[in-house]
Amino acid sequence: MDSLVEGNHTAVTGFILLGLTDDPVLRVILFMITLCIYVVTIAGNLSTIILIRVSSQLHHPMYFFLSHLASADIGISTSVTPKMLENFMVQKNTISYLGCVTQLGSTVFFGTVECFLLAIMAYDRFVAICSPLLYSATMSTQVCVQFLIVAYMGGFLNACSFTICFYSLFFCGPNRVNHFFCDFAPLLELSCSDISIPAVVPSFTSGSIIVFTVFVIVVSYIYILITILKMRSNEGRRKAFSTCSAHLTAVTLFCGTITFIYVMPKSSYSTDQNKVVSVFYTVVIPMLNPIIYSLRNNEIKGALKRVLRQRVFS
What we know:
This protein is mainly alpha-helical. The protein contains ten helices and five strands; from the N terminus they run E-E-E-H-H-E-H-H-H-E-H-H-H-H-H. Helix 1 (24-54) runs antiparallel to helix 2 and helix 2 packs across helix 9 (271-296). The chain is globular and about 65 Å long.
């Protein structure tokens, strides 16, 4: 155990991540699968960012936020996956104290930013469909930048709440974290100090953010649905639904998993279930988002075809 003696206690200076499995054969298989997912994640999200930058047809608020969503997906995945891949291939899955708090803070930061971005994109679709004549004024460049600042500030403050609470904990005993990354809940179980406040504060901040962003998304889509149902043109309805379907799919996947982890009582699910859901939102969803938006969004598919055509015939 990496430790320092502090008074009559031994302070832990590093942790051992127990990971997903001890089976050496399964670890190799999971390494290969996770590596493929990570490569697809980075390639897919970088391609989304580049496509939005080079395609003038995608220089709209929705795609401006989508490019930042892709950046957040890269951030979430990179916070967890490289260390996860390393741990599949070594016997002792260790992480330093500083490395643990860095991983925790960055995961919370990018996850919170993604929550806010999904809510902002829902509001963007609400304005575009319900008040199209006011869209340019309502979603101006200045407003979009302000929304973005709110998203990143929200991520920073939430990450700070987790980080400060982590530093308030004292670890003097076992240092084996029953997870594949430094998630806050299994770290609490190892603390030798009082956890009454550190356990409540991050749950409150995360829960408040999730409730607020889900509320914005739900209200926005209620108004969108009402507006779509009032449309007389079937073509107009189809186009409105097609612009929202990709975002709705992304929202359902991401908000569903983080609600399971950070809002539901810990007694309602096991540690193994927590690990599976955590893999989904830190590793799988960042890979799925660019696929969802490329397959279910006609404007992105059209822009991609135009870019590829220009590259082939240039």
